[in-house]
């Protein structure tokens, strides 16, 4: 994974914009045609999509965004809108993962004119969905320091067998994602409340999940589908919580097929 990240960053430069005192960063493959924005989940920066960016970046304009240490979904939505305005992008597609699948709903709520389609990947409705997992218990997340939370997750990642996802997460936590950034995202998860109905047509929304996702249990997947019953629902048999890493071909097929 380290080699893939080096290859990606040799090919594409990072860009940044400060919005209300917070730095947003992104990689832009700058291929011709409409842009697709990619948003990572709680762990990692925009380069979590390294496989997708290297595989599709010359055919599709992909903009992989690293969002700042914010937990409020409205602030995140408005910050992304500022990035889109800065780049001069027309309405387009935004693809999310996990925590960003939560706050991306608020982007659709607050900035519907920016959207042609939203992909809510491996997401949830509100913080109660993940509360049974001790690492997403609200009292735990609110009571632990940013540094200790970061150390907990880095220790957990290092204790798992070596594999591409494990290597990518370790690089992100050890070298690229600050404790404050990780803490903000976890606080955003445990404090999350359901988004009001979106002023978007059903056809503009895709709910993506994976049958073997270890973090999003079946009843939570079903709850998000029921939140958007008229949306396109895509369930991959494999891909875990990171289909862009664990089932890249199916994930890339989803991005290259019309939505």
Q: What this model shows, in words?
A:
With 259 residues, the protein is α/β, with parallel strands linked by helices. The protein has a single domain, classed as Alpha/Beta hydrolase fold, catalytic domain (Rossmann fold, 3-Layer(aba) Sandwich), CATH 3.40.50. Helix content is 43%, strand content 17%. The chain has helices spanning 2-11, 50-56, 73-87, 99-110, 138-143, 146-159, 164-176, 179-190, 218-227, 243-246, 248-256, and strands at 14-19, 22-28, 35-38, 61-66, 92-95, 115-121, 205-210, 232-236. It has an eight-stranded mixed sheet with strand order 1-2-4-3-5-6-7-8, with helices on one face. A hairpin with a 2-residue loop joins β1 and β2. α6 packs antiparallel against α7. The protein is globular and about 45 Å long. The mean pLDDT is 97.
């Amino acid at each position: 994974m380290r080699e893939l990240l080096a290859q990606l960053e040799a090919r594409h430069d990072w860009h940044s914009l400060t919005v209300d005192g917070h730095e947003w960063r992104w990689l832009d493959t700058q291929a011709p045609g409409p842009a697709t924005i990619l948003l990572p989940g709680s762990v990692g920066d925009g380069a979590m999509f390294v496989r997708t960016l290297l595989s599709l970046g010359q055919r599709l304009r992909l903009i992989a965004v690293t969002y700042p240490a914010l937990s409020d979904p409205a602030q995140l939505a408005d910050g992304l809108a500022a990035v889109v305005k800065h780049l001069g992008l027309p309405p387009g597609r935004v693809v999310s993962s996990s925590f960003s699948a939560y706050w991306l709903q608020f982007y659709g709520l607050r900035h519907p004119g920016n959207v042609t389609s939203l992909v809510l990947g491996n997401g949830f409705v509100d913080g109660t969905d993940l509360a049974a997992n001790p690492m997403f218990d609200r009292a735990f997340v609110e009571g632990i320091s940013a540094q200790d939370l970061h150390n907990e997750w880095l220790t957990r990642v290092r204790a798992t067998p070596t594999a591409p996802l494990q290597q990518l997460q370790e690089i992100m936590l050890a070298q690229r994602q600050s404790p404050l950034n990780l803490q903000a995202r976890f606080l955003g998860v445990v404090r999350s409340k359901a988004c009001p109905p979106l002023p978007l047509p059903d056809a503009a929304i895709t709910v993506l999940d994976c049958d073997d996702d270890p973090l999003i249990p079946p009843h939570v997947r079903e709850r998000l589908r029921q939140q958007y019953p008229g949306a396109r629902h895509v369930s991959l048999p494999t891909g875990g919580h990171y289909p862009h890493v664990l089932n890249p071909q199916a994930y890339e097929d989803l991005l290259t097929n019309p939505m």
